[in-house]
């Protein structure tokens, strides 16, 4: 009823409903081709949409096997279908197709180009991060080191939410570095069939990019705590210390098993470094002072700040979003369902105002 606004009477009744957008184009990345496909497909179907899945070129097999299983389970092929091919060849056709009513994309810089071409449709983008790990003087260093190993080297660092830069207070830097180096020595390096911790990165182009970041840092005075070693696409884990802001590794996302350390004199330096990055997906703070952690989290301009844990996506009902060039929109089940629907209103107009109590 409209009478809660001055000047309006009780002579209108609005029926608002959520209706499907139509066709959702879902584009997951190579590193989580099934999980991040499902996180797009499921809300789209729940909201009543049909889905066109564009599997990642370098992760298509598992995606297509999942689609086969879904069709075998009874999903109509017209409701859920896949289109394969290189993004460079079919990307423009898909993202600008007039029948596409929504795009959900997880990946890199390609997402920015998609946004510019897509037109006036809802868009959900997650485009990577340069996630800062801020370690304060009162932090539990054993906990911090454990999470840095897990957060920085799982999937060989090929995660948008991986630890991408450690900003540690100078007073505890040496102690933290020792713990990290000791734990890194226990990581196994090899191939997936041997269940190794560090396995090859996705492509030669990626490996060469990572090596370029490492060599730039060394040439500008950074310290390697391990010997640089690469065989093809297999890169041994590397901790790069004494990194300064004139080095590429301080700002660029390696997407591989190398982590830079910036030694800071004040927590504000770490906050400033986080906020100066064009990427702002996640970050984390290690401290025993929860009050300081909350204040610093508010000051760090990233989509999510983890306290006393490494950056991570999920659980899937949590909001997940990036700021600045890390993305548009918020993921998570509820947020994605809302994105993939539109509001339709029907207003009933009465000839006279309806009865009001009192």
Number of helices: 10
Rg, rounded, reads 24 Å
Largest sheet geometry: 7 strands, mixed
What best-fitting shape do the alpha-carbon axes yield?
globular
Termini separation: 16 Å
User: Which percent range fits the helix content?
Assistant: 25-40%
Q: Which structural class best describes the helix and strand composition?
A: alpha/beta
Contiguous low-pLDDT stretches (5 residues minimum) are none
Q: How much of the residues is beta strand, in percent?
A: 15-25%
Number of beta strands: 21
Counting copies of identical and different chains, the oligomeric state is single chain
Biggest sheet: strand arrangement: 9-12-13-8-7-15-16
Mean pLDDT: 94
């Amino acid at each position: 009823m409209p009478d809660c606004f001055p000047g309006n009477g009780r002579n209108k009744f609005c029926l608002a409903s959520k209706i499907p957008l139509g066709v959702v184009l879902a584009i997951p990345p190579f590193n989580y081709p099934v999980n991040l496909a499902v996180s797009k497909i499921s809300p789209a179907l729940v909201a009543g949409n049909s889905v066109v899945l564009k599997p990642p070129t370098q992760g298509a097999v598992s995606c297509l096997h999942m689609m086969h299983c879904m069709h075998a389970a009874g999903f109509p092929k017209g409701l859920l279908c896949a289109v394969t091919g290189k993004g460079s060849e079919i990307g423009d056709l898909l993202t600008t197709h007039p029948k596409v009513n929504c795009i959900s994309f997880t990946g890199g810089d390609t997402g920015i180009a998609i946004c510019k071409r897509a037109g006036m449709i809802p868009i959900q983008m997650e485009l990577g991060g340069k996630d800062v790990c801020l370690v304060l003087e009162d932090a539990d260093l054993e906990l911090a080191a454990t999470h840095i190993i897990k957060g920085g080297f799982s999937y060989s660092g090929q995660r948008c939410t991986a630890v991408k830069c450690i900003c540690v207070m100078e007073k505890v830097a040496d102690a933290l570095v020792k713990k990290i180096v000791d734990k890194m020595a226990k990581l196994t390096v090899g191939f997936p069939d041997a269940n190794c911790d560090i396995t090859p990165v996705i492509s030669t182009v990626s490996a060469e990019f990572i090596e370029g970041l490492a060599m730039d840092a060394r040439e500008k005075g950074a310290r390697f705590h391990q010997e640089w070693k690469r065989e093809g696409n297999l890169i041994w884990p590397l901790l790069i210390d004494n990194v300064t802001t004139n080095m590429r590794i301080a700002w660029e996302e390696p997407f591989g098993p190398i982590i830079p350390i910036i030694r800071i004199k004040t927590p504000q330096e770490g906050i400033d470094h986080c906020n100066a990055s064009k990427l702002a997906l996640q970050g984390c703070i290690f401290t025993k002072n929860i009050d300081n952690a909350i204040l610093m989290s508010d000051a760090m301009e990233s989509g999510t700040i983890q306290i006393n844990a490494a950056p991570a996506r999920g659980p899937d009902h949590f909001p997940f979003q990036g700021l600045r060039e890390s993305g548009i929109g918020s993921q998570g089940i509820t947020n994605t369902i809302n994105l993939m629907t539109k509001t339709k209103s029907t207003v009933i107009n009465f000839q006279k105002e309806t009865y009001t109590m009192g």
